[in-house]
Structures are given as C-alpha cells and as structure tokens.
Amino acid sequence: METIQQIRCGSANCFLIRNDTAGILVDTGRERYRDAVLNACIGTPIRLIVLTHGHVDHVQNAAFLSKELHTPIAMHRDDIPLLEDNWQQPLSSSGFLGGLMLSATKRSFRCDNIPPFSPNVLLDHGDSLSFYGFDVRVVALPGHTRGSIGLTVGETSMIVGDAMMNLFRPRPSLLYHNRVMLLRSIRKINALAPQTIYFGHGRPAQMKK
C-alpha cells in the first residue's frame, strides 16, 4: 500500500510516494530547497521522478536530483518546450489573488533558470506506473499548462499538480494557459472523486462526497 509524504518547498510542494520497498518523487521544487528534497529521499530507493508540469518551481532541481538519486525523469511531452523557456505557454489569471500570483510568476520566469535535462520517460493519460512497483496511474490534466498531469495513488488519493490549488480553500488553479481545458480537467478530477487531494500549492484536503 502506498503512502504520500508532502515535502514543502516554500510555496510549492513536492511529494514522495512510498511503498514497502521504494519511492517515486513527484516534482522537485526550486534550487534553494534541493537539499531538503534530497534528504527526504534518503533511505528510500527512488525509482522515478515524475514532473506534473514544466514550470520552474516544480522542475528546477530535476537535473540535480536525477543525478544524485540515479533516477530517470518522467513528464508529458507537451511540456518539454517549457524546460528551455517557461514563456513558451503564456499564462492568464483569475481574480485579485490570481493577478498577484501571475506577477510573481512572471518575475520568476524572467529571473530563474532551469538546469538543462531531457526526460527519460514520456507519460500520457492512462499510463500505469506498475512497472516501477506502484499502484499509480497518470491522468492528463491540461489547462494550467498543455502537458500538466496528475497521479491517482491507490483507490483514494490523487496528486493534481497545479490543476488545482488549496489557497484558503480547494479551487481550480488561478493561473492557466487555457481556461477551457483547465475546467475540463477539473471535471475529470471531480469524476474520479478522490477522497484526498494533494496540491502543488497548499495543504492536502479531504474532499466531501
């Protein structure tokens, strides 16, 4: 049976999915948090690093952690262009809080770099990670970015990346590349009806039935 550990990296989260023998690291955080993420993985053989999308706050440590953990990196092909330039997919925002977040995000896109790497594994909707020993499936959740993905873990939990955020309450992402696609992804999450959702930003939440 899998467990999920949240690793807080400032305003963003990484997650360590563990079973009895190994782990999968989901997202990698910013450079200043790389030792915290690495230390959380010590003692657990990491079979795979999964990136929910290509924004710098989720992938900046991917090259470093892949080397240190001797672990392949997996993501959706549609976000590979973001690894060279986060401006490749312009973002819009919703509401006052979303506007503040968008300003901070644009500043990050201008100032922060992503150490180069190429994903070893390309993931798509419906892919199973049973090859790595985990009851985990990939769910395509485009909208925040074109290649955003989530992961169902077992029968009751889901990691949604930045498709949703838990800022004061669980809600669709306030930042999006394509709002129509984002809302379709939210309906997909609702249809899966996970009991617990783990967000790229904010604390995990128990969802009402």
Which properties best describe this structure?
alpha/beta, 24% helix
Describe this structure in words.
The structure is a single chain. The chain has 209 residues and is α/β, with parallel strands linked by helices. The protein is built from 5 helices and 15 strands. Strands 1-2-3-4-5-7 form a 6-stranded mixed beta sheet, covered by helices on one side. A 5-stranded mixed beta sheet has the order 8-9-10-14-15, with no helix packed on it. It has a two-stranded antiparallel ribbon with strand order 6-13. Strand 1 and strand 2 form a beta hairpin. The protein is globular. The relative contact order is 0.16. The model has no long low-confidence stretch (mean pLDDT 97).
